[in-house]
Records
---
Amino acid sequence: MSFLDSLENNLKALESREQGGLDEGNRREREKARAKASAPWAERLKQDPWTQNLMQQATRAGYQRRVKVNLVWIGTSLRLEARGQRLELRPQPDGIAAVFLHGTVESKSQAIDLKKDPQKLVAEWMAILDLQKKLDDEQAEKELLEEDAAEA
């Protein structure tokens, strides 16, 4: 490869890197602006008695179903996890969103009003957990029957 070919390849590589760098810089700026706009809502989510009430109700409802509900703060978001299902409360620039996830796939999102009782949100998530428990029980029963058939 000649010196000119090498120089040309280096210039092309630099140009493509600069183009990606600009996109990356713009993305970072957008994320920073979004975080700044969401900050008041993140603070309210952490400090509001509504959040404590939600955690107590979710824990109590899970206990009644013999399901351990894990509560985790991830950055400014609150995540409730049980049976592969998640409920994340995410601060947004215009409020707080409750996002329902199965694994990592979002299934539903809705706005949260911190002035209302969190019971409706907990009941909605518990209905999803009840359905997941039913599916898990059916799968376990099916596997048990297949195991018995294989032994016979």
---
Amino acid sequence: MTRCHLTTLLRALAAASAMVAAGSIVALGENAAPPAAADAAQGQEVAQKQDEQSTKTIEKIIEESESVLSGRGFTYDPAGRRDPFRSLVEQTKADKGPRPKGIAGMLISEVDLVGIVQKGKDNLAFFNGSDNKGYFLRVGDQLYDGRIIQINRTTGQVVFRQEINDPRSIKPYRDITKRLYSAEEEKL
């Protein structure tokens, strides 16, 4: 519906409501004693105030509908869910800039778990990086696309929390597990 149609419709509605209000004043006057000049003036003031109020309401409705149509009056709070208004086809990737040197610049898929050792109460995971150097990492250490959230020496597993930027995914991360294999398992 265009603005012109909406304006015309709302003005007609306001005029009808003013006529109903004026008619009810006249109807009250018919059942009561004949209206005095003061009562007639008071009835006109009431009708005029209602007409002004109706005009203000119409203008407010038109302004709000225009703001919604132009996109100014609408916001969306996803509250942790995927935004349904973002395109699923378009891949949006946040560029973190150039990769730093060392293990902090390597992807989770680029490092290989070699072993897990215990140092005091902490477990350390030994990784071979893409630069063929060895790195000892603790829980909380950061790689380029994620961080270590768990090291379990008894099961031989290291769990990474990888940050993903996929609009189809509900969660902005996924957990990746790397594990050690025994000599018999490697032969299979």
---
Amino acid sequence: MFVETLEYKRFVEFCEACRRDRYIGLCYGPPGVGKTLSAIHHSRIQKIVPLDRWHAEASDAKPIDTVLLTPEVVNTPARIENDVRQARSLVCSVAKRATRAEQRATLDVLRSRDEAWRVEHRDDRDYRPNYPLPLKPTYYDTLHEYEARLEAIRIRLPLSWSMKQIVWR
């Protein structure tokens, strides 16, 4: 059980400032005051459930948009860069998975709607299968909308040091 104290609220304010200004935050202090527990609770890293080697999803319906990176005491810049890439990949996978599931469901509904319209109008003399269907929204418009959402997720999580948030221990 985690108690959201005044210090935790200050920590969240610090993290939101890092997110807003796209800075890397350095959180330091004496041991045992709750820096790591606050970071774990704020990042919701315990809610990420690995599905297989490459994909993961959140155990609740809320989006995961914060990276918690705790580097080893002895490391190299290349090691930290690799850890940042892996953390970014995990967050990106979680974010895209929810969008892709929603995309599949929406497109399946549109596909079955379009097919039902085609079956209904198959015997109609004025029916031309090569003309666009008069149904809105169209399948392709919706597909392009979801592809744009997936691209926006990739852009919001750039592969650089200006990630959403990195909390150091």
---
Amino acid sequence: MPDICAIVLAAGESKRMKVPKMLLPYRDKTIIEKVIKNIISSGIEKIVVVLGSGKDDILKLTGKLPVTNCYNENYKQGMLSSVKYGFRKLDEECGAAMIFLGDQPGIEPDVIKAIVEAYRNSGKGIVMPVFNNKRGHPLIITGKYREEIAGIDESGTLRDLVHKFAEDVHEVEVKTQSILRDIDTQEDYSNELKQIT
């Protein structure tokens, strides 16, 4: 899928977790390794990993993988700054970006493929997975919105883009709540591990 690239957001400070959550064990890997493995297994070949807090420790893992690692020195400004940075690091040939949270290891390759297929078939510029009427990640945003994303106020979020261009949004219903589950607390982590045992 050379026209669809992945941006993996792995720059957060893990404040609520109190330990670097990207490095926590998940199956036979760490959380960040599992996220990247799922993306590779889905067929997406170009992957940009946006690092921030704890970058050196994460890089020891992601540096061995077929991804482009980059460091967002403004990561403390929040997730949007990492999204913007990730878009700046994409190759020009990337027609769209699929944005992944680095703490969602439960999103399997088949789910990723279903979202990609929906993007290709919908003709829409923004495609979001939905479970029980709740929107989740990863979402796909076409490259035509690069400048629009760059211009979002730092106090804003990607939701601002989604609301502004609501007519260009396509929702794809998926059969798993993994698109809604991220890991912010020890309880979240425990619940995620229960999904795989």
